[in-house]
Design a protein that fits this description.
- This protein is of the alpha+beta class.
- It folds into 4 domains: 2-72, no CATH class; 78-173 and 459-565, no CATH class; 174-328 and 411-456, Transposase Inhibitor Protein From Tn5, Chain A, domain 1, CATH 3.90.350; 330-407, no CATH class.
- The protein has 21 helices and 16 strands.
- The chain has an 8-stranded mixed beta sheet with strand order 7-6-5-8-9-14-11-10, sandwiched between helices.
- It is elongated and about 120 Å long.
- The mean pLDDT is 86.
Length: 565
């Protein structure tokens, strides 16, 4: 390459000089020159810089040498963050999320909500806009126009009606989708409460978060047998867990085209009516019995206490269902220890209560008795302990026979299924039921962990469902990040924070601020390990600058400023 100055004449003997960046190549015995760029309109100092850079040649020190040759006219500055959003976007593509969402601007807005949920958990739509303005998301996701928080909020009305189609497309990318006859699904529900009162699905119900006076909604999560999230469903806050089961049966039939599958749910999810409903639909189930149901079977003689030890036992019930029983000694010891500790705390409280009654003659014994009874019920000790009054003192009466009867099933559980033994042996049935811990772990990640689905910054039903869907899709991304980075002893939060420090570097003209070149720096050693664990490499060229994303308030300020000038 070389700089060529071409002199030409115009009208009135005016002289013109064209500055061209050219490249010469030999074709046979001839030399052919090709113009690569026209530099005529650049300032003389910048033309000199380019000419000097061409003479120096392209090597590892060319940027530094170019800056030195610029005599203070060129400098480097940190631009938008690239590393974290690049990784999250690439993992999203590996999960086929962009493919399932589509290529429209609405689809890109939905994809950004998914990525932003991973990058900045528990954030509002407004904060997502600010985050997009600080990172390379507009360019990487291919936005053609700018957007603000109003666009993200309106995006819920586009996303919610398409949930079933999106989940179906993602399922078709799942290797298990090609074996419908062997498909096994895990299902569980939880609740999530609201601080406000206006959400369309919010209602009072059984609150697992133990927050008084807060409305909530009920959320179901369906996964495949490996724990990969497939579908999230929302119900009004007063919906019983049992009533969500039929919805999932219908979803599996219509969305995932599953005609014969096995649904795994806990004892509060799949009870006798739900088991019958599954059988009528041609499906199978794996669930567990409540303690009262186990006691009924013991009294009827269908099972014996000898079935409950550290090994897995199987028996067939009179109605044809298979029962897999076991006692977890670790869980048994935990229950017994907790019971003793609660009793000790109760006796400590009892001493203080009696001392209070002794020192305050006008204090009511009935009030202390009521408080003590409440504590008994809270610790589930009322099955074998009771409080009585003797003059102006409370005493605790224990029935050790009842304690022995109450504690004999500590750590014991019974798993019930209608699967044939030729399809799944006792150990397999046991292990598949225990796999529900994967769904519970996902719920912890969604509710209290990295993704923090609360707070719900939405009101309408469409936006509420869209919020839950984007959180579920973000969960798919996070699971991949965790799987790749766990061997490095690095959490997802730590890895993303490290990669967020990897920014595009702008090579710019100091006098005008105009960008001359954009470069991606070499990752640090820790950033390189994170990328390698995911099998990713940074692009050779920095992404082009995408649309400028600002909040609605900032946009109005920019418009007012433009009018003044």
């Amino acid at each position: 390459m070389f700089i060529s100055r071409v002199h030409s004449k115009g009208k009135g003997d005016r002289q013109y000089v064209s500055v061209l960046l050219r490249q010469s190549t030999r074709v046979g015995k001839s030399v052919v020159s090709k113009t690569l760029a026209i530099l005529t309109d650049l300032p003389e100092w910048l033309i000199a810089v380019v000419e000097n850079a061409v003479k120096i040649g392209k090597d590892a020190q060319s940027i530094a040498q170019l800056a030195d040759a610029a005599d203070g006219h060129l400098s480097l500055r940190c631009a938008e963050s690239l590393g974290a959003v690049f990784v999250v976007h690439e993992v999203a593509k590996a999960c086929a999320i962009p493919k399932a969402l589509g290529t429209s601007e609405d689809a890109k807005l939905a994809l950004w909500q998914v990525c932003a949920r991973v990058l900045a958990p528990a954030t509002s739509l407004l904060a997502m806009v600010r985050l997009a303005g600080r990172c390379a998301a507009p360019a990487l996701l291919g936005f053609k126009t700018t957007f603000n928080e109003d666009d993200l909020y309106a995006n819920g009305a586009w996303l919610a009606p398409r949930q079933a189609k999106i989940e179906a497309k993602l399922w078709n990318e799942n290797p298990l989708s090609s074996a419908p006859s062997k498909s096994l699904f895990l299902y569980d529900v939880t609740s999530s409460y609201f601080e406000g009162q206006q959400n369309a699905l919010a209602d009072f119900g059984y609150n697992r978060d133990k927050t008084k006076g807060n409305k909530q909604l009920v959320m179901g999560l369906l996964t495949d047998e490996s724990g990969e999230p497939l579908s999230v469903s929302l119900f009004p806050g007063n919906t019983s867990d049992l009533n969500t089961f039929n919805t999932q049966l219908e979803s599996l039939k219509t969305t995932f085209d599953q005609q014969h599958m096995t649904l795994v749910g806990d004892r509060g999810m799949i009870r006798k009516p739900q088991q019958l409903a599954a059988n009528e639909a041609g499906h199978h189930f794996i669930s567990a019995l409540h303690k009262a149901e186990i006691q009924t079977l013991l009294k009827a003689g269908e099972i014996q206490m000898s079935f409950f030890d550290n090994t897995v036992h199987e028996t067939q019930l009179e109605d044809g269902r298979r029962l897999v029983t076991r006692c977890n000694p670790t869980r048994r010891d935990e229950i017994q220890t907790a019971r003793k500790e609660f009793e000790e705390r109760l006796r400590t409280w009892l001493e203080k209560a009696n001392l209070y009654l002794l020192e305050h003659p006008k204090a009511r014994v009935a009030t202390q008795l009521k408080n003590g009874t409440t504590r008994l019920k809270r610790g589930h000790l009322n099955a074998w302990l009771r409080l009585e009054t003797q003059e102006r003192a409370l005493c605790l009466i224990a029935d050790h026979g009842l304690l022995e009867e109450h504690s004999k099933l500590d750590g014991c559980y019974a798993i019930v299924t209608d699967l044939k033994a030729s399809v799944a042996d006792a150990q397999t049935v046991h292990d598949r039921y225990k796999d529900l811990a994967k769904v519970e772990a996902d719920f912890r990640t969604l509710k209290h962990g990295h993704l923090e689905i609360r707070p719900w910054y939405v009101v309408s039903e469409a936006n509420t469902r869209a919020h839950a869907l984007t959180a579920m899709l973000a969960l798919k991304i996070r699971r991949r990040l965790q799987s790749a980075w766990e061997p490095l002893n690095i959490t997802v939060e730590e890895g993303l924070a490290d990669l967020a420090n990897l920014c595009v570097m702008d090579f710019y003209e100091t006098t005008t601020g105009q960008t001359v070149s954009r470069q991606i720096p070499t990752p640090s050693a820790s950033q390189a390990r994170l990328l390698a664990a995911l099998g990713l490499t940074l692009p050779d060229k920095a992404p082009a600058v995408g649309p400028v994303v600002v909040t609605r308030v900032e946009l109005n300020q920019l418009r007012k400023s433009a009018k003044k000038h």
